[in-house]
Write a structure and sequence with these properties.
By secondary structure, the protein is of the alpha/beta class. The protein contains 12 helices and 14 strands. The protein is elongated. Bound molecules: adenosine-5'-diphosphate and magnesium ion.
């Protein structure tokens, strides 16, 4: 079975500016993927190409094995697309807009009413069907945008910044709606907000300046740089501990890649910050404590935040390195 999305060596130039610099990734059927990157990274450009609204300079974009530039109509049948600014026909009533969209999408006449009904139910639009779109709140506008995206029951949803400009309550609503849709569809959603992907996505692709810089689960990304353990210990017998000796013993604990002195908890205690890579050293730490007659007064795993990882992956310093 092919992937739902297959992007290969995608390059997009606007004049002399290269917005995508050979982007490649695949998304299997059923995955909910966060497409993350700072403003100007190339998210919208990629999604427009994928949805068949823009031609790549070179490289290919396939949806369920269909090359979107070769068979744009065929590919679009499988795609529901919520563009970045969610352009809607402001003067239209919601119900008319959905009818019009169903017609344009080629939904068969005898299926239109049922499809519209289903999209309206899923997106919670029952109350506003008779309103003009320009009377709607931003949250409801997004719901209408999602409803038009799912009208023809596509397998793949391409959502470009679906929660941008919404207030916190609306964000929660739209997120849970996306989560629901993600149970039956493949979803790729772009955002420049990290917390967005943590709750909704099982995989995160991070792009920066038209290149993929990370591809991982939110959890793995969070741990990508390893982490640290904050430790406070004392002597079990109450003797005075030699800081240098303790530091050396801690540095030798399996998994630990570095030990730095930190704040203790007063008289007779020593504090350290232990760094580690792939292996969490806490189990070995307890064994070392038994062996050395230490009392562990505090052992706390400190996570590198996803924000920190993101910043590192997309910062100027990183690129210069
Ligand atoms: N139509 C266009 N003409 C010229 N430059 C563009 C056009 N669309 C996008 N760009 C440029 O391409 C880069 C990527 O833009 P975009 O894909 O919109 O980024 P993102 O969605 O990640 O914020 C930016 O530098 C942007 O200025
Ligand atoms: Mg964008």
């Amino acid at each position: 079975m092919g992937s739902m999305i297959q992007i290969r060596s995608l390059i997009k130039r606007f004049g002399t500016h290269e917005a995508l610099k050979g982007l490649s990734f695949e998304v299997p059927k059923g995955q909910v993927v966060g497409f993350l990157g700072p403003n100007g990274a190339g998210k919208t450009t990629t999604m427009r190409i994928l949805a068949g609204y823009s031609q790549p300079t070179s490289g290919t974009a396939r949806v369920a094995d269909i090359d979107v530039t070769q068979d744009t109509v065929g590919a679009r049948r499988l795609i529901g697309y919520l563009p970045e600014s969610n352009p809607l026909y402001d003067e239209m009533m919601v119900v008319d807009f959905l009818r019009f969209t169903a017609e344009v999408r080629g939904v068969a006449i005898d299926q239109r009413t049922a499809r519209i009904k289903r999209a309206v139910e899923r997106c919670g639009l029952g109350q506003v069907l008779g309103k003009d779109i320009n009377q709607l709140s931003k949250g409801y506008r997004q719901r209408v945008g999602l409803a038009q995206a799912i009208l023809h029951d596509p397998d793949l949803l391409i959502l470009d910044e679906p929660t941008s400009g919404l207030d916190p309550n609306q964000i929660v609503e739209i997120r849970s709606l996306i989560k629901e849709l993600g149970q039956e569809k493949t979803v790729i959603l772009s955002t420049h907000i990290l917390s967005e992907v943590q709750s909704t996505c099982s995989r995160v692709l991070i792009i920066n300046e038209g290149r993929l810089v990370a591809d991982d689960t939110p959890e793995q990304l969070q741990n990508a740089e390893g982490g640290s353990v904050s430790v406070v210990l004392g002597s079990r017998k109450g003797d005075k501990l030699d800081p240098a000796a303790v530091k050396a013993a801690l540095a030798a604990v399996p998994g630990v890649t570095g030990a730095d002195a930190a704040e203790g908890e007063g008289e007779g205690t020593l504090g350290f910050k232990l760094r580690f890579g792939n292996e969490d050293p806490r189990r070995s730490l307890f064994e070392a404590a038994v062996k050395n007659d230490w009392v562990l007064l505090q052992v706390e795993r400190v996570h590198v935040s996803l924000e920190e990882t993101f910043r590192k992956l997309t910062s100027v310093e990183k690129r210069a390195a």
